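Model it.
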Amino acid sequence: MGLIAREIEHRGIPTLSMSSARSITAAVAPPRAVFLDYPLGHTAGRANDPANQLRIMRDTLQIFESIDRPGSLVDLGYQWQPDDAWKERVMRPDPDRPNNHDDDRVARHATPQYQSEEDARAADPDCPTCVFLG
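Modeled.
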């Protein structure tokens, strides 16, 4: 969405992205963004909790009015449920912890990585049918 937001801004329309993925949003660098530390898919608040959703939207719009530095990413300060360990369940577990033998996800890296060798071959920049944006 950040890439789209930049194009819309380039055409003179102010934008504000809402994100639950801080590192991805920071990497894409939309013109303005707010971060909500909620699970993906809940960027506008908890389901069936209109009071929470209204607070988030009001805070977001207030920040929209006050951001004056392009590329700003503002943390709204909300937490899903402080006692809920949802991040523990979705983020890459520590391989040294017991009971992680069922986790077959690849390790995360600071630079983009292919999930498999097959993916790397499919993304060959010399591929005549592949499209790469430079």
